[in-house]
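Posting for a labmate who doesn't have an account.
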Amino acid sequence: MKLRVLDILKKLAGGLAPFQNLVLISLAAWATHIVLRILLLFRSNPYGFPFVSKPDWFIFHAVCIDFMWITNTLVVFLILGGIVYRFAASNETAKKIVARTVPVLYGIFHSAILLLTLLDNETQRFLGGHLTFGLVDTYKDTSSIVVFYDYVANDLSVPYLQFVVLALMLPLTYGVYKLLCKWYRPTDGFYIKKSVIAMLVFYIASYSYVYFIWTGSSRMDKLRPVVSLIYNDLFGAKKAPGLTEAELSAYRTAYQNLWQQVEGDSNWTFSDAKEGNALPLYRIPSAELVNSEKLATQREMKPNFILVLMESERGLNTGYMNSQIQPSPTPFMDSLAAHSHVWMRMHTSGVPTTGGVLSTHIGIPHHSHLQQATDLAHITIPSFVSVLTENGYSTHYMSAADPAWDNLGVWMAKWYTAQHYNRNREDDSTFMDNAIEYVRDTLAKEGKPFLATLMTRSNHYPFNFAAGMTDEEKNRPLQERINVTMGYADRQLGRFIRAIENEEWYKNTYVIVMADHGFPLGENGVSTMSGGGYSNISWIPFFIHGKGLDAVRDTTTAAQIDIAPTVLELAGLAVPNIFMGHNLLRGCSTGLSLGSYSGGYAAIGLNGYRFIARFPAMQETHLFADSDLRQENELTGKLQDEEGRSIETYLGATLDTLLKISDYTLERGL
C-alpha cells in the first residue's frame, strides 16, 4: 500500500515537471508578500499612530492567508497549463512554447498582484479601507494623485518608503526566485517534489489555524488579499445592483414621508440636493428650531457627555428590563436607571460591534450586505461626535478592546479629538481606572465641554473574560456565565460613576448607558450572531441620566439610529444632517426601530409590531407585537391591516425601502 502511494505521488510529480518553476515563483512571491505584510502591520499609519495595536495577533494569519491564496492560484495555473500542454503533446515545438509561456504568464500575474497589494496596503494605511472598485470610483479624478504624493511626502512613519518598496519588491522577488533555482538542483528527475509535499502540509496547517484554531472574522476581513478583493468586486454575492433614478425617486419619497410622519412636527425640511449630489436623507432644521429657547438654554449650559457602550449587554439579562431574572446581574445599572429616562424598547441597529457602534454614531443602520467598517472606510459620513467636535467639544474615544481589530479606529479618527487604547488595560477594571483618572483629572480641567465615550470588553463571548472568575464559574453554561460577566462589567461601571459623581462638573454632565448589541443564547432556536434578528441580539439597555431628565420608563420604540439626534438635542445643536433616527426627547410617543444584522437579517419596529426577515429576499419572516420583548408569541400570518394586506407585507415593503435608501447613502456619504 505504501509503495502504491509513493508511485502515485511520483507520477503526479512527474506530470508537473514541465511547470516546476511555477512552484519556485510561488515561493518567491510568498516571501515578498511576507515582507509587505510586515511593513504594513508593524508600521504606523501616515498620521503617526499604529496601524494595528497588536501586529503579533495579525502577522501569522497574514502569512497563512497569503500562502493559501498563492497555492490556490498555483493549482489553477498548473491545471490550465497541464491541459494546454496535453493538447500540444504531439508537437514538441508547441510543448516547449507552452512550457516556457505558462511560467512567464504566472510571473506577470504575480508581479501585477504585488503592485496592487502595495497600493492596497497604502490605501489601508491612508484611508483605513481596502482598495476596491467603489473606492476607485470615489477617488477617480486626477487630483487624487497629487494628494497621494503629498501624503507619501508627509508620512509620519517613513517618508517615501512606498517608492523604495515599489522599486525593490519585484527585483527582490526575482532574486529570491533565482536563489531557489540554485538551491533546488535536479537529482532524481524531479527536484521539487519535496517542496510540493511540504507546501501541502503547510496549506493544511494554515487552513486549520486560520479557520478553526484561531478564528476572527474582523481580522480576516482586514487581511483580505487583493485577489479576494477583485473576485468579490467582480463576482461576489455581496455585490448588489444600484438604484435606478425611478427607484431612487420612489424610495426617497416614501422614506421622507414616513420620517416626517414619525417625527410628528414640521421642524425639519428635506433638501434633496447638496453640492450637486442626490442625498435623500439630507435634512435641514427650521429657523424656529435653531433659535428656539429650549435649544438656546442647552447650548448655554455646555453640558458634558459620558457615553458608556457596554459590550454584549443583553436586555434579557438586565435586571430593570427583565424582572424574571433573579437575582439581577446588573444591580448598579438598575439603581442608576431608576433615576434616569429609560427607553424600555431600544434595539440595536447593527450587529456585530462595528454595526452597533457605527449606527450609534452616524444615525444610520449598518449596511445590509457590505462590511461597512472596512469596505466603506473611505466614505465621508458625519456623526454626532463630529458635530460636537466642530462646536468646541473635546471628544475622546476610550476602548478596552483594540479599535484597530475591526477597523473602528479608522472611523473614530474621523470624528474624535483623540483615541485611547492600551493592550495592558483590556480588563474592564484597569480600563475604568484609567478612564476615571483621565476624565476627572484631564478632560474636566481643559476648560471646555467634553464627550468621553467608553467601550467596555469583559462581557464578551465566550463570557469568561471577567477578571477573577473561578473555574466553577468558567465551566457554567453560557446562559449562566453571561450573568457573571455582566455582573462584573456592572461593578466596574459602578466604580466609574461613584468615582466622579461628587465632582462639581458632574452636575452638568449627561451619562448615557447602552449596549452595542446583545447575544443569542438559544432563544428562538438561535445561538449564533448570524442566526437572526431576534430580541436576544437586538433588545438592549439604554438610558440617559442627567440634569432636567425625569425618571421615566419610556415605551416608545427606539433604536441606536436615534442616539445621534438625541445627543445633539441635549447639546442644544440643530444642524443639517443625514440621520435616519429621531430625537427621542421630542415628546412624541411614535417611534421606529431599524436594524441590519450579520447573516443577512434585518428588522423594523413600527406601528406596534416588530418584523424580522432575511434581507433582501424577505425570506424567513417573523412578526411579533412590539410589547412582546421576549418574543414568545409569533404573529406571522395572523394579522391584516385596514386594506386587507398582511402586516408582514406592509412592514416588509417599508423595511426594503428604508434599507435600500440607507445603503445608497452609506455608499456615497456626504
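Reply:
Got it, the C-alpha cells are right above this. Residues 8-15 have pLDDT under 50 and may be disordered.
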